[in-house]
Amino acid sequence: MYKSIIVGTGPAGLTAAIYLARANMKPLIIEGPQPGGQLTTTTEIENFPGFPDGIMGPELMDNMRKQAERFGAEFRTGWVNSVELNERPFKLNVEGIGELVTETLILSTGATAKYLGIPGEQDNIGRGVSTCATCDGFFFRGKDIVVIGGGDSALEEANFLTRFASKVTIVNRREELRASKIMQDRVRENSKVEWSLNRTPLEVIAGDRGVNALKVLNNQTGQEELLEASGVFVAIGHHPNTAFLGGSITTDDNGYIVVKPGTSETNIPGVFACGDVQDTKYRQAITAAGSGCMAAMDCEKYIENLK
């Protein structure tokens, strides 16, 4: 019987682990196949407070993990297949471990960026391919960038990237965009933005120094084209990692866990959520860490009230 189990080891889960471990609650943290979350796929992080010269994503996650271990947090590797949350204590069925029982549960399983699945994409993550403009835009100062997507998020990222890039080209499979009209009007007024609509991305072209072009198919002419760029930002959305919950937690229409405003509390007392699994707006390492602190403090207070 654990006092608390944390599922997920991104900045949210590891921050929660640090706080609970310091409170002498000896939390168990379940690591999935990618310990550290999305930050382990990034290179240098320059916007996390406390690191004026920046820090590599994997190094930041490793430091946070060691900090949690220092205070007594326990880590085990496994894949949570299912949960039983209809009564306390809660039960987790974890592949490679078996059944685990806990008084409280913190869900910090994050959200996974959607990718196109085209050649050269996965090979060049961190070498010019990105899914986060606010994380990586700074590295493309004075360079040409391609943004793939037609929704509000894609156009927001394109608009943001014009602060750094010399040119931003928006690529969309259709002629029409899904983004709101006000967002489209705002971006069309930006002189740094060019449009490559009705084109299907085919391949990310890269050399020794990283990305240098995106190959696309012109859907009208049937001809292949090369869009020269040093960066390719894929902005086609995210999906939260909540399938293993089996509908036992209240989520929104897109599968993100719903928490009570101003807290990390879900619809089930004793179950808390933090990080990108419940964040549809910010999706930053620092906001994830902050929500992990909230979840740990909410969890600690809940256990105290049980006593």
Please give a handful of descriptors for the protein shown:
23% helix, alpha/beta, 307 residues, FAD/NAD(P)-binding domain, 2 domains, seven-stranded mixed β-sheet, five-stranded parallel β-sheet, elongated
Strand content: 25-35%
Q: Which parts are unreliable, with pLDDT below 50 for 5 consecutive residues or more? A: none
Number of strand segments: 19
Q: What is the percent of helical residues? A: 10-25%
What shape does the CA trace take? elongated
State the assembly state of the protein chains. single chain
The main sheet comes to: 7 strands, mixed
Subunit structure: Homodimer.
Enzyme class: oxidoreductase
GO cellular component, one term: cytoplasm
Cofactor: FAD
Q: Can I get a quick summary?
A:
Homodimer. Its EC number is 1.8.1.9. About 25% of the residues lie in helices and about 30% in strands.
